[in-house]
Specification:
Number of helices: 7
Shape: globular
CATH topology: Rossmann fold
Distance between the termini: 14 Å
Largest sheet: 8 strands, mixed
Strand content: 15-25%
CATH architecture: 3-Layer(aba) Sandwich
CATH class: Alpha Beta
Number of strands: 8
Amino acid sequence: MLKALRHPPWVLFYQGNIHLLNEPMITIVGSRDLSEYGAELTVKTCEVLKKHFVLVSGLAKGADSFVHKCALENGHSIAVIGSGLGTRYPRENSSLYAALMRRDLILSEYPFHTGVRKEHFPWRNRILAALGEALIVTEAKYRSGTMLTVNEALTLSKEIYTFPHPFESTHGSGCNRLIADGANIIYTSAQLREIRPKLVIG
């Protein structure tokens, strides 16, 4: 799956259960500064999809944190981070990092002690896009790192799913633009339940 990237990682370091990579995966991303509506969408999405997929996200503030916390209850997740495995970022996710390390999986393409660097996160996003069978965006501004992940997913011909947001919503302007550009629109829980694994990975 990573070989399809224009610039695949030379190496991936991991902590946790590497066998989760053999399961069907779906990537869920969204804003670091979630609105109440965005948080609700993220939780509902995870509650449904963790029954059929390993959830993939970036262990950042906001939507990513909701994804990983939700998966800790009767599900599993994979975190792809933009620093080395020895750097817990953001600090408020330190306990979440420890929980993922024990029962789930954390991936990084950077050596253990590599610190946080702004330029690492766009590169991290390409791995997020590649791992999931599809990409779900729960909330995003029009200009954001989340939209970079969308662009990476599109180059890989991944299905993009998103939710409608209120008229002139700043928090959801990226989602509304994605819908205008042809992304799959989710507006009922029944549609979420219809998203099932496409591939059987042996």
